[in-house]
Amino acid sequence: MLKSCGRKLLLSLVGSMFTCLLVLMVEPPGRPGLALGAGGGAQRALQSLGAAGPGPGQGPPGLRSFADYFGRLSRARRELPAAPASPPRPPAEDISARDVFIAVKTTKKFHKARLELLLDTWISRNRDMTFIFTDGEDEELKKQARNVINTNCSAAHSRQALSCKMAVEYDKFIESGKKWFCHVDDDNYVNVRTLVKLLSSYPHTQDVYIGKPSLDRPIQATERISENKMHPVHFWFATGGAGFCISRGLALKMSPWASGGHFMSTAEKIRLPDDCTIGYIIESVLGVKLIRSNLFHSHLENLHQVPKTEIHKQVTLSYGMFENKRNSIHMKGAFSVEEDPSRFRSVHCLLYPDTPWCPTNVVY
Ligand code: UDP
Ligand code: MN
After folding, report:
1. Which of 70, 169, 197, 262 is the most buried (most CB within 10 A)?
2. pLDDT, tens only, 257-281
C-alpha cells in the first residue's frame, strides 16, 4: 500500500516537473505580451501583437492556453508596484482645466451603456474641456454633453475605424488651440485635478508624450516603405485604454503624419491600431521618448492592485471583464459593488463629496 502511494507520488512529481518544463519551452521569454488581460480589452493589444508575430493579413494570434496564462500571470506580477515611476516634479507652467482638451472615444452602442456613467460623474464637472467622438447621431446625447462630434467613421472596432476616430480627434485638438491633447476611452474615469497637476509639471511647448504602456517591451512592427519594401521598427506606445496626453508642441510636429488624411495613411503603413500609430509617429518617426506614468490605468492591468489609499492620486481608472470576472479597482465606497460595478460612482463621491446624488457621512 505504502509502496504504491510512494510510486504514485513520484509519478505525479515527475509529471508536474514535465508540465513546467513544457510551459517554459512553449513561452519564449523574448515574446512581447499582455499584462493581466480583461475581456475584450485584450483585443487591441493582441492586434498589436499580430504585427510582431505572423505576417501581414494573417490576423492576431489567439491566446495559447497554458503558455499565455502563465505569461500573463508573470507579467501581472511585474506590473505590481502602483507607485509613481518618478517623484513629483515641480510645476513648470501654471495651467488650468481650460488648457486641456480631453477626447473621449465612443460608439453609438455605448452611448447609454458606458457614456452615461461618465456624463454623470467626471464629465459633469468638466463639460467644456471634454469632447466626445462618436459615430452616430444622438439628440439625447447632445442635450447631455456640450461637445459631441460625429466623426462619420464606421461604428466598428476595426483598426481602420479606430484610426479614423483618432484622426478626427487630432484635427479637432489642433483647431481648438488648447495646450494639451489627452485621449481616453469611454471606459475611463478621469481625475481632472490630478491630470492638470501632472501636466503642469511639463511645459506644453516642449515635446511631451505621457501615458502607460500595456506591453513590457517595445512593440516590433514593420513599416511599409514602398510597394514591396518593408523595414523593421520597434517603439514604445501608451495604451489608448489607459489614456495618454501629448503637448501642443509635440502635436504640431506630428502634423505631417497625423493631420488631415495622413493619420490613416500612417496607420496603414504599419498596419497597427490607433494608439500604436501614435507611438510610432512620436517614438519612431520623431525620436521623442514616451514618458511612463503609473497614474494611468487600463483594464489590461489588474486593477485590484491600485492601493485603496492612493485612488484619489490616480489620473485615469478603468474597468472591464476578464474570464467572466470583474476587473475594477477595489474600494469601499458610497455604493456597493452591485450598485456600482465599475466603482466610478464611488470614486466620484470620494473626489467630489458635494455631488447631490452622493450619500453623506460615508466612511472610506
Ligand atoms: N469602440 C468603437 N467602436 C466599436 C467598439 C468600441 O469605437 O465598435 C471604442 C469604445 O467606445 C472604446 C474603445 O473603442 O472607447 C475601446 O473599446 P473596448 O473598451 O470595447 O475594447 P478594448 O480596446 O478596451 O478592448
Ligand atoms: Mn476598454
Report:
1. 169
2. 999 999 999 999 999 999 999 999 9
Tell me phi and psi for residue 242, to 5 degrees.
-105, -10
Look at residue 189 and give its three-state secondary structure: strand
- Residue 356 CA to ligand 2 center (angstroms) comes to 29
- Among 147-151, 331-335, 359-363, the range scoring the smallest mean pLDDT is 359-363
Q: Which three cell numbers stand for residue 115?
A: 457614456
Which spans in 192-233 are helix H? 192-199
Cell for 319? 474597468
From 138, 186, 275, 340, the catalytic residue? 275
Which helix (H) or strand (E) segment holds residue 3: the answer is helix 2-26
Q: Which grid cell is 23?
A: 510551459
171 is catalytic: no
8 A C-beta contact, residue 57 and residue 77 = no
> Which residues does residue 181 pair with via DSSP β-bridges, in sequence order?
101, 246
Q: Is 40 close to ligand 1, i.e. is its CB under 6 Å away?
A: yes
Residue whose C-alpha cell is 490576423: 59
Q: Check if the beta carbon of residue 164 is closer than 8 Å to that of residue 260.
A: no
pLDDT in tens, 174-229: 999 999 999 999 999 999 999 999 999 999 999 999 999 999 999 999 999 998 99
Looking at the chain, how many residues does it have?
364
Q: By three-state DSSP, how is residue 101 classified?
A: strand
Q: Is 353 in the pocket of ligand 1 (CB under 6 A)?
A: no
What is the pTM assigned to this prediction?
0.81
Q: Give the span between the Cα atoms of 278 and 238, in whole angstroms.
A: 8
What's the CA gap between 56 and 78, in Å, rounded? 31
Could you report the per-residue pLDDT of 238-264, keeping only the tens digit for each? 999 999 999 999 999 999 999 999 999
pLDDT band, very low/low/confident/very high, at 85 (cuts 50, 70, 90): low
β-bridge partners, 229: 226
Q: Distance (Å, rounded) from C-alpha 124 to C-alpha 115?
A: 11
**CA–centroid distance, residue 166 to ligand 1 (Å):** 12
Rounded to whole angstroms, what are the CA distances from 2 to 7, 8, 14, 269, 283? 9, 10, 18, 67, 64
